[in-house]
Design a protein that fits this description.
The complex is a heterotrimer of chains A (about 70), B (about 280) and C (about 375). Chain B has about 280 residues and is of the alpha/beta class. Chain B contains 10 helices and 8 strands. Chain B has a single domain, classed as Rossmann fold (3-Layer(aba) Sandwich). Chain B has an 8-stranded mixed β-sheet, with helices on both faces. With about 375 residues, chain C is an alpha/beta fold. Classes of the chains: A alpha+beta (about 70), B alpha/beta (about 280), C alpha/beta (about 375).
């Protein structure tokens, strides 16, 4: 039997607000994010555990994780 | 209300408290001030405070730009005097829920006198001291909390002045709620703010946060995350750990948590209870 | 019913005027020779639902006074020379943020600590230029105890009407002098209350630039807005837009410039046919009046122009005086402040002579009479 498809979280990043400080990238326990250019982007959504640490520590009100 | 413990299915909606059109804010990349503000907004939400009653007052500096971003009654004043403007507002209209956003320079140097007298009066307000050991707005000069030996643009050979302990100062001056947190420990900070907002009297919360652009670059820190790790996480220990940790592990570190909490009559209540009662007898 | 007469000290009359005007908030710091104002307000305000607080210093007093006003209460502080110096930065803040408040300065000898119990008129220019940056200034100069009461009421009225701080300057002599005065009944004097917005909070702009003076909503009444000492746009938020900065900086001056006739007030005696004009304020103007009367008795055509509003400067009245007189004598308790303004306005049309005294003693009529007779 095929495993039910894993429901992925949705990570919303505001490029307008993000200043690419890298705090979310550095403190993400599962290495989901990376900096590309002047903004943070999702590198590996499947690794996300929805722990919210990126949101909690983002100084720029730029990232949100939806279940 | 259970807060922050649950796994959120919907992330916290900061925008309902923000003046969204003012973002992005002026703080530098990696500056911890935004993290402090977020912890405060969650605490305000926990306390279900009304935006119409909330009044945020600030002085001058990076931290003092906070009021511009929150959708409350907001007052950005002159350097060091936020406490005095706020005292006038609170006494004139006690229904206002006062929050002061200030920094280590604004509160401890130019505003030192007003800070201690505000604590002494025990007038009902939450004072948040964003403490990053530097004057950021003017480009990285040493402040009254810059550690000995640290480099600043006005301390090129290393700072020789011993720093103030903001929490000890607040306690000695008579503040009835004194706590310390960091931007790194953001959920702990939210809980501290929640407690502080429920306190009647002068509540002082010192928040250690980082200025990676000025303090960091001059003091060989590689970036915001490293500063959070070194200064905020490893440079502090919680009040709960205090008894368990051996002295050598506490050496040179700051203690986090609620450090002092007592009940003492609040200024505006005393005014009504003692002065008005006698004057109108 | 007979009018209520009372023997009152100048500082006492100042407090009475503030209370008559509806002042409900006072923040201050003790300083000679103005302290009586604070002492009286500390007794009277709690009786009428008002608030009094003694702050930790003069700077804090000015700041708290502005805070009280932003909460919607008519607010007052009183001080003297050194305290007035300390208040200057916050006074400028009240100018740019357009928060009404009244500042009493009972002038004493300076510079610095100077002569705390001696009279002076050496803060005339500090009232105008004490705080940095171009800014609007209204300053009133009562000379009699009755006038201190009346002018303090007028100070509140102008402050609330024009959304700007108003300074009341009187010298120590008038502040500590006792004279019988008439206490006004409610309704005898005009009392102006602050205009409140009639729009919804969503529509509210604290610095609406379609108006010369926008209504000011009190904090905590549902109009959530931002106030900053930075140059700001009409919504109150900081701006770097040079057009907006220029517009706002000019507007706050224009509030005064466009209403000179409403703000300026002069007392004139024997000016109709005057050939020798006197220009004086405060205690000095009382000596001047005595000298004018003495001169008239001798047939000398002397007259007195006594401004009750020193800022904005009474250019129009001084200009008329310069037109008809051969000399304007300006006695003042300083080394030459108003005299240069009179020279500016007279612009060479007549001679302008100052009489100056800074030894802590008043200018006596004999000193003025001597000069009048010299020019007669």
């Amino acid at each position: 039997m095929a495993e039910p498809e894993k429901k992925l979280p949705r990570i919303e990043i505001s490029e307008r607000r993000c200043k690419a400080c890298s705090i979310c990238v550095d403190f993400c326990p599962t290495n989901v994010l990376e900096i590309r250019g002047t903004s943070c982007v999702v590198k590996d959504l499947e690794a996300c555990t929805r722990c919210q640490l990126c949101d909690l520590r983002c100084p720029d009100f730029a990232i949100r994780v939806f279940d | 209300m259970a807060v922050a413990k649950q796994k959120l299915s919907v992330p916290f909606d900061y925008d309902k408290y923000l003046r969204k059109d003012k973002l992005p804010h002026i703080w530098c990349p990696g500056c911890g001030h935004g993290i402090v503000l977020k912890s405060l907004l969650r605490a305000i939400d926990n306390k279900e405070l009304s935006k119409d009653d909330l009044c945020m007052v600030s002085g001058i500096g990076c931290s003092s730009r906070t009021p511009g971003y929150v959708d409350f009654n907001t007052l950005h004043t002159i350097h060091g005097r936020a406490f005095s403007f706020a005292t006038g507002l609170k006494l004139a209209k006690p229904s206002l829920k006062m929050i002061i956003a200030t920094g280590d320079g604004d509160a401890m140097a130019i505003g030192g006198n007003h800070f201690i007298h505000t604590c002494r009066r025990n007038i009902d307000m939450l004072i948040i001291v964003y403490s990053n050991a530097i004057y950021g707005m003017t480009g990285g000069q040493s402040s009254p909390t810059t550690p000995i030996g640290s480099i600043a643009t006005t301390a090129r050979y290393g700072n020789v002045e011993p720093p103030f302990d903001i929490c000890e100062m607040a306690k000695a001056a008579g503040a009835t709620f004194v706590a310390r947190g960091t931007a790194y420990h953001t959920q702990e900070l939210e809980r501290t703010f929640t407690e502080a907002l429920g306190h009647k009297g002068t509540a002082v919360v010192e928040v250690i946060d980082s200025c990676p652009i000025y303090f960091g670059r001059m003091n060989k820190q590689r970036g915001a995350s490293e500063m959070m790790e070194n200064i905020e996480k490893n440079g502090t220990f919680s009040v709960k750990q205090a008894d368990k940790l051996p002295d050598e592990k506490k050496e040179g570190k700051l203690v986090r948590g609620i450090l002092h909490r007592v009940e003492r009559p609040e200024y505006c209540e005393q005014y009504d209870k003692l002065i008005v009662a006698k004057a109108t007898k | 019913m007979a009018a209520k007469k009372k023997l009152m000290q100048g500082n006492e009359a100042c407090a009475a005027g503030a209370l008559y005007a509806g002042c409900k908030f006072y923040a201050g710091y003790p300083i000679t020779p103005s302290t009586e104002v604070a002492e009286i307000m500390s007794v009277e305000l709690p009786k009428i639902g008002g608030k009094f607080i003694q702050m930790e210093d003069e700077i804090a007093s000015m700041a708290a006074t502005i805070g009280g006003s932003l909460a919607g209460l008519k607010s007052l502080t009183a001080t003297s020379g050194p305290g007035f110096s300390l208040k200057q930065e916050a006074l400028g803040y009240a100018c740019i943020t357009e928060v009404p408040c009244v500042i009493i300065n009972v002038m004493r000898g300076g510079p610095s600590t100077g002569y705390p119990t001696g009279p002076s008129q050496s803060d005339i220019m500090q009232a105008k230029w004490g705080t940095h940056g171009d800014h609007p200034v209204i300053a009133l100069t009562p000379a009699y105890v009755q006038e201190i009461l009346d002018e303090t009421v007028r100070a509140f009225n102008l402050s609330e009407k024009y959304r700007t701080p108003v300074i009341v300057l009187f010298d120590e002599i008038v502040g500590h002098m006792r004279e019988p005065i008439t206490i006004p009944e409610p309704g005898d004097l005009e009392v102006v209350d602050r205009e409140k917005p009639d729009c919804t909070p969503e529509e509210y702009k604290p610095y609406d630039d379609t108006k010369l003076i926008a209504p000011l909503a009190p904090f905590g009444d549902g109009y959530r807005f931002h106030v900053t000492g930075l140059n700001h746009s009409e919504d109150g938020f900081p701006t770097n837009n040079s057009e907006m900065i220029d517009k706002n900086n000019r507007r706050i001056m224009q509030k005064i410039d466009d209403n000179i006739d409403d703000i300026c007030k002069n007392d004139e005696s024997n000016l109709e046919d005057a050939e020798i004009g006197l220009f004086a304020v405060g205690s000095t103007s009382r000596s001047a009046k005595f000298s004018v009367n003495a001169a008239r008795e001798k047939g000398i055509k002397a007259g007195l122009l006594r401004p009750l509003t020193i800022w904005p400067f009474p250019d129009k009245a001084v200009s008329e005086l310069a037109e008809k007189c051969k000399v304007i004598i300006v006695p003042e308790l300083n080394l030459g402040q108003m005299v240069n303004e009179v020279k500016r306005v007279a612009a060479g049309r007549c001679e302008v002579i100052g009489i100056h005294r800074v030894d802590g003693e008043p200018i006596k009529p004999a000193q003025i009479t001597e000069l009048i007779e010299k020019y007669s």
